[in-house]
Amino acid sequence: MNTPPTVLDLAAATRAGSASAPETCAATLAAIQGADPRLNAFREVHADAAITTARNVDRDVVAGTASGPLAGVPIALKDNIVTRVGTTSAGSRMLAGYRSPYDATAATRLAEAGAILVGKTNCDEFAMGSSTENCAFGPTRNPWDLERVPGGSSGGAAVAVAARLVPASLGSDTGGSIRQPASFCGVVGLKPTYGRVSRYGLIAFGSSLDQIGPITTTVADAAAVLQVIAGHDPADATCVREPVPDFSAAVAEAAGEDHARGLRIGVPAEYFAEGLDPEVEAAVRSALALYAEHGAELVPVTLPHVDKAVAAYYVIATAECSSNLARFDGVRFGHRSEQGGSIEQLVSRSRAEGFGDEVKRRIMLGTFVLSSGYYEAFYDKALRVRRLIQQGFNAALERVDVLACPTAPTTAFRLGEKAADPLQMYLADICTLAVNLAGLPAISIPCGFDSGGLPIGLQLIAPLFDEVGLLRAAQRYEGWTDWHARCPDARRG
Amino acid sequence: MTTIDPQQVQRLAKLARLDLSDDERARYAGQLDTILRYVEQLAQVDTSDCDPLAHPLPLTDVLRGDVPAPGLDQQDALANAPARHQGFFKVPTVLDQTGGA
Question: Which of A63, A113, A306, B15 could form a disulfide with A70 if both were Cys (CB 3.0 to 4.6 A apart)?
C-alpha cells in the first residue's frame, strides 16, 4: 500500500493540478464507506456537499485561482462543531437531528482555505468521556484492535485519521479529548493554547477549558491546519488578539535541523509516578533519550499540586457543564418529552430522556459543587488549587522550553473495561487534564508501540501561546523516527 | 465528611431539572459519593494565600463596539423548536386559569 498523502502534499498537488479534488473526494467517500461499518468513526458523511466543494476547488484550479492552503484536502469535524450542512448532535440523543442555523468559525475557515468537509465524527456525548463509548449512537472502535476503545472524547476524529480515511480532522479538548485519543490511535493531536482558536460554534462543555484543535498524521500537517483555524474571532470573546505566527515555516525550519541543541526539556517527576504502564514509561523514556542524544538538555522539574489536578478538574469541568447544559430545556431546540405535564415537568422529563448516563452524572456533580453550602468547600477551593497548578506549570516553563511526559498512563483499554467505574475512567486522563486547567498548548505524537501492538503517545507541553516552540520540538522527534508513518492497514497487509 | 445519599440526589435532580428514575437515583448516589470522596483531597491543599482562578488567561471585560449587526432571523431561530405557534416557541400553560402559578 502506498503511503497516503499528507495534508501538505495533497494541497500542493491539488493546487498544481496533479491531484484532482473530485477524485480525492470520491476516493475518500469510498474509503469511509468501506471501513466505517467496522469502525463507526463517522456519525454522518456529507457526500453531496463534499462533491460540490470538490468540484468548486477543481474549477478554481482550472481557472488558475486555487490558492487555498488546504485546497482539495478532505477534513472531518467532530460532531460537536456545528455546520449548516447536515446535523450536529454532539453524540447525544438530546440533539439528534439538530440542524445548526450557522457554521462554527473553525469550519468556515477550513472551507475558505479550500478544505473538503466530508462529515461529522463520533464522540462521547457532549465531549464527556475518555473512550468514545458514552455515545447515543454506539461506540467507535480502535483500528489497531477492534476490541479496544479509541480513547475520547474525540475518538471518531482520531480513528478517521489513524485509519487513513482522511488526512486531518478537528477535535475538541477539554481535559485531553484530542491528545488521549491521538495517543491511543497512533496519530498527532494538538491542543492549542486556550483562546488561540475560536470556540464559536463548538457546543460548549467547560467554557474555561474547551479548545478546538487538529488531529493529523504529521506535525507539519497539524501546523498547517492550526495556521488556518487560529486567530482572533469577534464572535468568541475568549479568542484573543494574539498575533498568529507562521507555524508551518517554524516546523519546516525544524525539519531541516538534524540536532536539538539548545532545546531544554523539562521532565516532570509527577507524570512518571505509580500507575504508569511500564511499557508506556519505557517508550517515553526512550524518546527522551533520543532527544538527549541529539543534544537536547533534559531537566528534572516538579509540578507542585498537579496530583490534585483530577480532583480540581472534575469539580470545575462539571460545574461549567451543569451551567452550560442548562440551555437544553426541550423548548427552543433539542429533545422534547412527549409525556406532557407542566412546564417544569416538560423540562425535567425532556432532559432526563435526552441526556445519557455520564452527562447526567456530571450535571448532578456540577450542581452539587455549585450549590449553597458546598460552593466554598468544592468549587471555590478547586479554583484556588487551579491557580496553584497554573503557577507550578509557569515556574517549570520558565526554566525549560517544553515539558515532556506520557500522554496517557496506558495504551488503549478494552471496550467496556472502565464503563462501570466513572472514577477509573476519569483517572485515564491524569496526564492531560492539568494542561487544560493551566490553558497551555500541548501535543501528543506517536513514540512507539506496546508488546500488544498498540500505539503509545509522547506529550509535549509549552508555555501559553508558544505553539511555535511546541511544534518545533515535536517536529524534531518526528524527523528522527517513523512511528507516525505506521498505520493499522499497513500492519495487517 | 460530606455524603451523597438518595435524598441528596433527589434534591440535586430537582435543582438540575432532571426527572430521574428510582434506579438512577440509587446508582448516582453511590457513584457520586465515590467521586466526592476522591475530590475531597482538595482540602489537603493550603490555598490561604491564593485567589481563585476562573479562567486561564488574564482577560477582563472584553467589549465590542455597540454596532447593530444582523442576527438570526425568526424562521432560523424557530427552525429547531419542537413546538411552535404563530412565530413563537410553544410551551405548556404556565399560569393556570384559577390564578395559581
Answer: A113
Interface ipTM: 0.93
CB-CB under 8 Å, A343 with B94: yes
| A333 Ramachandran zone, left/alpha/beta (phi>0; psi -120 to 50) | beta
> In which domain, by residue range, is B16 found?
6-44
Residue B51 in any domain: the answer is no
Digit-coded pLDDT (tens) for A124-138: 999 999 999 999 999
- Quickly count helices (H) and strands (E) in chain A: 17, 11
Residues 21-50 in B contacting A (C-alpha not used; CB under 8 Å): 21, 24, 28, 31-32, 34-36, 38-45, 47, 50
Please check the confidence at residue A4 and state whether its pLDDT lies above 80.
Answer: no
* Distance of alpha carbon A329 from alpha carbon A358, whole angstroms: 18
pTM assigned to the model: 0.97
Q: Number of folded domains in chain B?
A: 1
Q: Let me know if residue B10 belongs to a domain.
A: yes
pLDDT single digits (tens) B3-42 = 888 899 999 999 999 999 999 999 999 999 999 999 999 9
Q: Give catalytic status of residue A100 as yes or no.
A: no
Instruction: Let me know if A381 is a catalytic residue.
Output: no
What confidence tier does B98 reach under pLDDT thresholds 50, 70, 90?
low
The CATH number of the domain where B28 resides is what?
A: 1.10.20
CA angle A446, A259, A192 (to 5 degrees): 45
Q: Does domain A7-258+411-417+442-492 have CATH number 3.90.1300.10?
A: yes
Residue B29 within any structural domain of the chain: yes
Judging contacts by C-beta atoms under 8 Å, the chain A residues touching residue B54 are: 208, 383
Strands A442-449 and A455-461: antiparallel
